[in-house]
Amino acid sequence: MTTTPTEADPQAIIANAQQEEREAAALVTTLEEKVRDGDESVTFEEVEKARGLLSFVRLRQEAARRKAAKAQEAARLAACEALYADIVSHAEGEGAEFSKLLQTATDAFAAFHDAVEARNERVRGYWQKATDLGVPEHKHNGPAPTTHGGVRLGAGSSSGLYAGVVAGRRRVDSIDANVFMNRALDVLKRQGKFKEMDYVDAGVDLFGDLERIDAEIPESADAKYFYRNPSGTVFRLAEPLSEDVIRNSQLTVITKAEADAE
Length: 262
Fold this sequence. Notes:
Blueprint lengths: L9 H27 L7 H48 L2 H39 L18 E3 L10 E4 L2 E4 L3 H14 L15 H6 L13 E4 L5 E4 L5 H6 L3 E3 L1 H6 L1
Antiparallel strand pairs: 1-2, 2-3, 4-5, 4-6
């Protein structure tokens, strides 16, 4: 028994046509076998009608295959169009978003570095003031005595990169921002979110380059000559190639419409 397939179901269209063919073929076989067995109730007209129906059903089956192929192609094109829309919906503005995120991250590192350097400058000032006030160096790991206001110079500290003071139980030293920034990057590295590349530098326009990652390729107003090589690559040129170059490179001259359709 045949069913009515939906327009958008290619497999159902083919299956329905195949079922119709099986039913028609079975009818022909049955009538022919009855004739062979001597059943005189089967008429010539009945057999011919069944054979004609089978031939017609086979034509319908071919039509069903073509219809199914058209439906499959329509579904494929619809999926392609949906894919295009999905790509464009994310590509438009995504580069700008990424650029902003990276700019924020870079600014955060710069702000951290500047804040640490400001702190280090204060610590060097603390050390210098304590030195000017005759505060001695702290010689043990306990709290600073209450003498000298509870302040001591950090053990082994100096006025430069290693300035440090002790205030009660708190040791305040200058710190290296680079150490902590490298540790932060190592956290990302351990998470699989950062890979150090010694051969990559910032370039000329880091954030602009990132913002332009998905930009549309501008139409070349100068392109007037179009060629396709054997692998399908299309070349758009402002000046024509010589016949020798076309022949030696196995190029095919094509129209702009053909180039745009590639």
